[in-house]
Amino acid sequence: MTDDLAESLTENSVGNVYVGRADVDAASDRGWLLGHFKPLGDVRHSEDVEIKWGVHPRGDERAQWVRGEHRTALLILISGRFRVEVPGRSVLLAEQGDYVVWGYGVDHSWRAEEDSVVLTVRWPSVAGYAVPSAAES
């Protein structure tokens, strides 16, 4: 880590600027770095877009399909091997930079075939899609 980044991380948020590390910040909010779920007044709060740094161990999968999707999404493979399921199609992301985009109305699910890191961008940012964790059910 550079000295400049280390110094910035000690003051994460100053005014309308936030400096962080995706792997560290994502761990505290199910991977989400930006979206409607961040506090009002936080520069990472947005009703327009959501960004997730997803770190998934081999075998990790979405607990249930997303149905009635009202967002568009872009999922980019950073590392690993990751499968996205959409109706009638299974998409394997196997090389860094492979990506898939799905639009409004497309149900989906996913599974990490190897330890994987993916970057997901969704728009707009709307509530109602989180799957309750085992502790919440």
- Sketch the topology as an H/E string, one letter per element: HEEHEEEEEEEE
Q: Strands of the biggest beta sheet: in what spatial order?
A: 3-4-10-5-8
- Which strand-content bin applies to the residues? 35-45%
Can you count the helices? 2
Please, what is the oligomeric state? single chain
Please bin the fraction of helical residues: under 10%
User: Number of DSSP strands?
Assistant: 10
- The Cα radius of gyration reads 16 Å
Structural class: mainly beta
The major pleated sheet works out as: 5 strands, antiparallel
Mean of all residue-level pLDDT scores:
88
Shape: globular
Cα(first) to Cα(last) distance is 39 Å
Low-pLDDT sequence parts = none
What does this molecule look like?
The protein has 137 residues and is mainly beta. Helices cover 9% and strands 35% of the residues. The chain contains two helices and ten strands. The strands form three sheets. Strands 3-4-10-5-8 form a five-stranded antiparallel β-sheet. It has a three-stranded antiparallel β-sheet with strand order 7-6-9, with no helix packed on it. The longest helix is centred in the N-terminal third of the chain and has 8 residues, at 3-10. The model has no long low-confidence stretch (mean pLDDT 88).
